[in-house]
C-alpha cells in the first residue's frame, strides 16, 4: 500500500536519514518517537507538503514521489487541525466534494458527520468549535475525499483524557472499516492502544519497526528500551555454555545474567530484564530463580505503575514493586537487599539482529 | 511629573488634530449656503465630480484585477530580486506626481507603442477618462498591493496546504481560502486606492486637463476666478469624497 524507500531530507541542523517504511492495506501503523524526531516531517513528505532530497514514495505500487500535493490520494489530518475558519462545519467537510451534485454531497457529509458524532455542528462556523470538535471535523473532512491512506499527526495530543479515549475508539472503528492509517505520536500508550505495527523513530531515522508485541518485547537499542519503559538494559556477551542449556550473558567482569538463549558463545548484544520481573528480598531466599544478587538500594522512585527500587548490584537495576509492598517491607535507601529473577525473564537480542 | 506628561500628550494630540481639522473647518465656515447650492447645481461641477468618481472607481477595479494576484505572488512565492521588486512598488508614492504624469504620458502619448495601437484601433487615450484612470491608478496602486500582500502573508500556509491535500487546485485554493481569508486587507487596500486615486491632481492634470476632474476644476476656478469661486466646489467635493470614504470604511469593517 504505502512504501517509503530511503527517504532523506537535510535541514542543516536536522535531517531525515534513509527512512524506510511499509504500511500494508488496512493496517493501523504507528510511528512512535520523541518530539523533534522527525515524525511529522515524514508525514509531510508523504503528503507532498515538502519534497525529500532523495528516496522514493510508492502508493499502491505507483511511485508518487514527484506527484503534486493535490494528486496524491493521502489524507493528512494536521496536528492543529487546519480547519478553514471562514467556512461552516458543513463547508469544511464538503470541501473536497465540490464536483459532486448537491444531493450526493449532502449524503456524504451527513453520513460522515453522523459517524463522527458531529451532526449537530454542521451549521456552526468552524472558528467557534472546541479542540475535540475541530479534531472530528478535520478527520471527517479528510475522510470525505476517501484517501487511500489516512495520515494522523499527533491526533490525540491536545485532547483531555475523556476525549482521548473517545477518539481512540473512533480511530479504531475507522480502521476496522478498512481505512489504512499511519499515525504519528510520542505517546507509547497510544501506540499500544491502537497499533498493529509500529516503527520507532529517533533523530531522523527509524531505529526499529515491526509488530507491536515484537518491538516492545525485543527492544533493539537503549533508546527503544528507554522509550518503551524498560530500565534494565545492558550491553552483554554470551559467554559460557553451562549445563542444561543455561548460558550466561556477561555484562562486566563481576556481573553476568543466566538466561535461555540459542545464541552462540561470543555473540555480542543487548540483554534486558523487565522491572516487574525483578523480585526484591530483605535477605537471601532459596528459589528456582537462577539470577540472585545482593546490592544496595540507591533510589526509591514513585512512578505511574508503582514504586521503582533502584539497586546497585555492580550494575544499576530497577525493580517495580507496589506501594503496599514498600510499606510492608519498609525498604529504605542505602539498605542492603537481595534481588532475584528467572533465567527466562532475561532476554537477549544480538547485535546482528539490530 | 506623570500628570505633566499626560497633559503634554493631550496637548500635542489636540494640536495635530486641530492642524488637520482647522483648514477644513475654516473653509466650510467661509462658504455661504447659497454659494454651495449654486455650485451643487452647476452642471460643470456635477460632471467633474461624476467623472472623478467614475474614473477612480473604474481604475481601481480594472487595475486591482492584476494587482491582487501580484500581491499574492509577492506574499507567497520566493524568487530572485523579491526585495527589489517590493521596493519598486512604492515608487509611485515617493515621486512628485506631476513627474509621474509626465512618465505616464511617455507611455500613452500618440508616439508611444500603446498610443499607436489605440489609434489604429480607432480611439485616443490622451485627454480621455481612460488616461485619467491610468494616471489615478499609477499613483494609487501601491496601496492595494501593499495591503493585499500583507493580508495574503497573514493567511496560514497550513490552511492552503490542507486545501491542496483535499485535492483542490492552486486556483481553487486561491479563490476559496487565500482571498476570503485576506479579504479584509484586500478591501481596505481597494478603499485606499480608490480614495487616493479620486483626490489625485498632479498626474491627472498632465495626461488629461479635459474632461475636467474635480481637483482640476478646483484648480482652474482658483486660477481664473479666485478663492471665492474655488471654495464652494472644494467644500462640495471634499464632502462627497468623505461620504464615499466613510461609506467604504464602514463596508470594509462589516466584512
Report on this model:
The complex is a heterodimer of chains A (354) and B (255). By secondary structure, chain A is of the alpha+beta class. Chain A is built from nine helices and 20 strands. In chain A, the strands form four sheets. Chain A has a six-stranded mixed beta sheet, with helices on both faces. Chain A has a five-stranded antiparallel beta sheet with strand order 13-12-11-14-20. In chain A, helix 3 packs across helix 4. The mean pLDDT of chain A is 87. Chain B is mostly helical. Chain B is 84% helix and 0% strand. Chain B has helices at residues 2-30, 33-41, 43-76, 82-89, 91-94, 97-108, 113-120, 129-153, 157-165, 170-198, 202-207, 214-225, 227-254. The longest helix of chain B is centred in the N-terminal third of the chain and has 34 residues, at 43-76. At the A-B interface, strand 6 of A face helix 9 and helix 10 of B.
Which short descriptors sum up this protein?
heterodimer, A: alpha+beta, six-stranded mixed sheet, five-stranded antiparallel sheet, 36% strand, elongated, B: 255 residues, mainly alpha, MetI-like fold, 84% helix
Q: Which structural class is indicated by helix and strand composition of chain B?
A: mainly alpha
Biggest interface and residues each: A-B, 22 and 18 residues
The averaged pLDDT of chain A comes out at 87
- Rg estimate of chain A, integer Å: 25 Å
Please mark out the parts of chain B with pLDDT under 50 across 5 or more consecutive residues, or reply none.
none
CATH H-level name of the domain at 55-209 in chain B... which superfamily?
Answer: MetI-like
What's the gist of this structure?
Chain A is an alpha+beta fold and 354 residues long.
Note the topology.
The complex is a heterodimer of chains A (354) and B (255).
Chain A: E1 2-10, E2 15-23, E3 28-33, H1 39-47, E4 54-59, E5 62-63, E6 74-77, H2 89-93, H3 102-115, H4 131-143, E7 149-153, H5 161-176, E8 180-185, H6 188-194, E9 197-202, E10 205-211, H7 212-217, H8 222-227, E11 232-241, E12 246-250, E13 256-260, E14 268-273, E15 279-281, E16 291-303, E17 306-312, E18 316-321, H9 323-329, E19 336-341, E20 346-350
Parallel strand pairs in A: 3-8, 3-9, 6-7, 7-8
Antiparallel strand pairs in A: 1-2, 1-4, 4-5, 9-10, 11-12, 11-14, 12-13, 14-20, 15-19, 16-17, 16-19, 17-18
Chain B: H1 2-30, H2 33-41, H3 43-76, H4 82-89, H5 91-94, H6 97-108, H7 113-120, H8 129-153, H9 157-165, H10 170-198, H11 202-207, H12 214-225, H13 227-254
Helix pairs in contact in B: 1-13, 2-13, 3-8, 3-10, 6-8, 8-10, 9-10, 10-13, 12-13
Amino acid at each position: 500500500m504505502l512504501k517509503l524507500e530511503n527517504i532523506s531530507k537535510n535541514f542543516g541542523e536536522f535531517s531525515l536519514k534513509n527512512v524506510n517504511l511499509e504500511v500494508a492495506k488496512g493496517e493501523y501503523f504507528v510511528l512512535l518517537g520523541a518530539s523533534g524526531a522527525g515524525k511529522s516531517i515524514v508525514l509531510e513528505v508523504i503528503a507532498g507538503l515538502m519534497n525529500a532530497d532523495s528516496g522514493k514514495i510508492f502508493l499502491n505500487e505507483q511511485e508518487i514521489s514527484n506527484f503534486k500535493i493535490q494528486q496524491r490520494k493521502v489524507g493528512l489530518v494536521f496536528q492543529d487541525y487546519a480547519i478553514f475558519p471562514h467556512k461552516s462545519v458543513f463547508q469544511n467537510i464538503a470541501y473536497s466534494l465540490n464536483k459532486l451534485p448537491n444531493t450526493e454531497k449532502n449524503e456524504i457529509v451527513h453520513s460522515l458527520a453522523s459517524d463522527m458524532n458531529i451532526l449537530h455542528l454542521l451549521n456552526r462556523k468552524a472558528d467557534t468549535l472546541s479542540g475535540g470538535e475541530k479534531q472530528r471535523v478535520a478527520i471527517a473532512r479528510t475522510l470525505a475525499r476517501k484517501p487511500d491512506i489516512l495520515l494522523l499527526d499527533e491526533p490525540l495530543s491536545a485532547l483531555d483524557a475523556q476525549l482521548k479515549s473517545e477518539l481512540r475508539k473512533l480511530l479504531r472503528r475507522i480502521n476496522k472499516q478498512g481505512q489504512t492509517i499511519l499515525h504519528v505520536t510520542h505517546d507509547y500508550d497510544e501506540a499500544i492502544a491502537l497499533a498493529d505495527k509500529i516503527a520507532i523513530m529517533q533523530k531522523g531515522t527509524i531505529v526499529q519497526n515491526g509488530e507491536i508485541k515484537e518491538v516492545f518485547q525485543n527492544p533493539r537499542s537503549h533508546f527503544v528500551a528507554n522509550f518503551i519503559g524498560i530500565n534494565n538494559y545492558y550491553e552483554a556477551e554470551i559467554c559460557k555454555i553451562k549445563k542444561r542449556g543455561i548460558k550466561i550473558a556477561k555484562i562486566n567482569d563481576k556481573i553476568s545474567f543466566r538466561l535461555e538463549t540459542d545464541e552462540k558463545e561470543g555473540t555480542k548484544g543487548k540483554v534486558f530484564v523487565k522491572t516487574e520481573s525483578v523480585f526484591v528480598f530483605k535477605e537471601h531466599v532459596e528459589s528456582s530463580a537462577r539470577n540472585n544478587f545482593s546490592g544496595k538500594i540507591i533510589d526509591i522512585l514513585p512512578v505511574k505503575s508503582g514504586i521503582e527500587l533502584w539497586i546497585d548490584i555492580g550494575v544499576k537495576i530497577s525493580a517495580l514493586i507496589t506501594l503496599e509492598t514498600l510499606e510492608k517491607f519498609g525498604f529504605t535507601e542505602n539498605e542492603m537487599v537481595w534481588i532475584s529473577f528467572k533465567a527466562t525473564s532475561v532476554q537477549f537480542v544480538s547485535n546482528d539482529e539490530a | 511629573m506623570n500628570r505633566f506628561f499626560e497633559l503634554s500628550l493631550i496637548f500635542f494630540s489636540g494640536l495635530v488634530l486641530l492642524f488637520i481639522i482647522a483648514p477644513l473647518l475654516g473653509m466650510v465656515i467661509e462658504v455661504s449656503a447659497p454659494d454651495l447650492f449654486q455650485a451643487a447645481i452647476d452642471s460643470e461641477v456635477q460632471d467633474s465630480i461624476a467623472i472623478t468618481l467614475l474614473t477612480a472607481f473604474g481604475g481601481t477595479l480594472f487595475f486591482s484585477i492584476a494587482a491582487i494576484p501580484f500581491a499574492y505572488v509577492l506574499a507567497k512565492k520566493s524568487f530572485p530580486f523579491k526585495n527589489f521588486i517590493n521596493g519598486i512598488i512604492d515608487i509611485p508614492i515617493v515621486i512628485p506626481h506631476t513627474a509621474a504624469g509626465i512618465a505616464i504620458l511617455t507611455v500613452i502619448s500618440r508616439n508611444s507603442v500603446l498610443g499607436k495601437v489605440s489609434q489604429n484601433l480607432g480611439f485616443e487615450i490622451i485627454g480621455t477618462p481612460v488616461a485619467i484612470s491610468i494616471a489615478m491608478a499609477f499613483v494609487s496602486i501601491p496601496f492595494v498591493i501593499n495591503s493585499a500582500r500583507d493580508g495574503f502573508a497573514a493567511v496560514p500556509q497550513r490552511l492552503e496546504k490542507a486545501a491542496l491535500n483535499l485535492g483542490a487546485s492552486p486556483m481553487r485554493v486561491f479563490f476559496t481560502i487565500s482571498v476570503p481569508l485576506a479579504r479584509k486587507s484586500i478591501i481596505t487596500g481597494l478603499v485606499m486606492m480608490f480614495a487616493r486615486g479620486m483626490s489625485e491632481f498632479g498626474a491627472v492634470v498632465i495626461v488629461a486637463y479635459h474632461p475636467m476632474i474635480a481637483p482640476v476644476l478646483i484648480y482652474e476656478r482658483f486660477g481664473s476666478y479666485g478663492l471665492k469661486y474655488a471654495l464652494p466646489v472644494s467644500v462640495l467635493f471634499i464632502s462627497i469624497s468623505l461620504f464615499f470614504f466613510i461609506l467604504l470604511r464602514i463596508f470594509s469593517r462589516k466584512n
